[in-house]
From TrEMBL:
<dbReference type="GO" id="GO:0008146">
    <property type="term" value="F:sulfotransferase activity"/>
</dbReference>
<dbReference type="Pfam" id="PF00685">
    <property type="entry name" value="Sulfotransfer_1"/>
</dbReference>
<dbReference type="InterPro" id="IPR000863">
    <property type="entry name" value="Sulfotransferase_dom"/>
</dbReference>
<keyword id="KW-0808">Transferase</keyword>
<dbReference type="GO" id="GO:0005737">
    <property type="term" value="C:cytoplasm"/>
</dbReference>
<feature type="domain" description="Sulfotransferase">
    <location>
        <begin position="64"/>
        <end position="320"/>
    </location>
</feature>
<comment type="similarity">
    <text>Belongs to the sulfotransferase 1 family.</text>
</comment>
<protein>
    <recommendedName>
        <fullName>Sulfotransferase</fullName>
        <ecNumber>2.8.2.-</ecNumber>
    </recommendedName>
</protein>
<keyword id="KW-0963">Cytoplasm</keyword>
Length: 325
């Protein structure tokens, strides 16, 4: 991260000539936080994250034992990282003797690497050194996943969130990330961009639907969970994740302890998640806001909520996927 307060993923000037060459042929649009975003394989990206995705597609070699957490931004990534990290490491770091659990002193984003972010920051990063099973996360769409992720037996846990809450979370996150750039940007315009699929990683519906269908076609490969179910019945969903990942028998007490350690109240009150920045320049506290279902009501007017609802209705009809709120 440079000395500027602008987080790395919003900066344009550090991409390679190869990325610039590709970018020159891609459709572009003015972004909300960034001056330009580019459409690659159907999705809109900042230059930095696009470069990370390109390198990831080229270099990442999945192993059968890998676990990849996939989300749209602001859909529960931080929480899912914490839960699955604690689950996989429950013998190495028992949560009951939690005085020295890594999650108490380290932000979940530093415990679970963000594939395209790491490849942007360090193109030569060697993931082969990570302990097995390797746990990583990405926002990459199903269509754009590295070939080896699809062809190997690695497992994908996909977490989806009600799009209205996801949008509102992104709206507040963006305002914290780039206060000056977003100051004069009306929420009406952001909702419009969201519904047109023109916010980072968008269209959100394609992202969700691709993983939704992949989970139905191959339930042993892709597990589809929702933020809402995780919130309403965290222990049940944790056990479902554990079973999918082949974690073996889990004591009820173990599950309870993990759920408690990873709760919004617990994580958001830790010093490490209240102070300081990630190496990419994003403040750790920006990943914790309200942590609720249906919080969109405090931010969206009725007509903006209806605009998103219309998009949801149109894009998800016939898919069998319903969002609770
Ligand atoms: N432990 C936790 N439990 C529930 N929600 C959490 C959480 N940690 C973070 N969140 C919420 O998840 C959203 C961030 O998503 P991501 O991790 O994908 O960036 C934020 O939502 P809100 O902005 O609605 O509060 C944040 O508050
Ligand atoms: C991926 C990320 C959450 C989204 C962040 C983001 C959001 C909106 C942006 O502007 S625009 O392209 O839509 O105009 C840009 C960004 C860039 C940083 C993104 C964050 C990095 C890690 C978070 O999970």
């Amino acid at each position: 991260m440079s000395s500027s307060s602008v987080p790395d993923y919003l900066r344009d000037e550090e991409v390679t000539q190869a990325t610039r060459d590709l970018i020159s042929s891609l459709p572009k649009e003015k972004g909300w936080l960034v001056s330009e975003m580019y459409q690659y394989q159907g999705r809109w990206h900042t230059q930095a994250l696009l470069q990370g995705i390109l390198i990831c597609q080229k270099r990442f070699e999945a192993k059968d034992s890998d676990i990849i957490l996939v989300t749209n931004p602001k859909s529960g990534t931080t929480w899912l990282k914490a839960l699955v990290f604690a689950l996989l490491n429950r013998h190495k770091f028992p949560v009951s003797s939690s005085g020295n659990h890594p999650l108490l002193v380290t932000n979940p984003h530093l415990l679970v690497p963000f594939l395209e972010g790491v490849y942007y920051e360090s193109p030569d990063f060697d993931f082969s050194g990570l302990p097995s099973p390797r746990l990583m996360n990405t926002h990459i769409s199903h269509l754009s996943l590295p070939e080896s992720v699809k062809s190997s037996s690695c497992k994908i846990v996909y977490c989806c969130r009600n799009p209205k809450d996801m949008f509102v979370s992104l709206w507040h996150f963006g305002k914290k990330l780039a206060p000056e750039e977003t100051a004069d940007y009306p929420i009406e315009k952001a909702v419009e961009a969201f519904c047109e699929g023109k916010l980072i990683g968008g269209p959100f519906w394609d992202h969700i639907l691709e993983y939704w269908y992949a989970s139905r076609e191959n339930p042993n490969k892709v597990l589809f969970v929702t933020y809402e179910e995780l919130k309403k019945q965290t222990e049940v969903e944790m056990k479902r994740i554990a079973e999918f990942l082949g974690c073996g028998f889990l004591e009820e007490e173990e599950v309870r302890e993990i759920v408690k350690l990873c709760s919004f109240e617990s994580l958001s009150n830790l010093e490490v998640n209240k102070e300081g920045k990630l190496p990419n320049g994003i403040e750790t506290k920006t990943f914790f806001r309200k942590g609720e279902i249906g919080g969109w009501r405090d931010t969206l007017s009725e007509s903006l909520a209806e605009e998103i609802d219309r998009t949801i209705e149109e894009k998800f009809q016939g898919s069998g996927l319903k969002f609770s709120s």
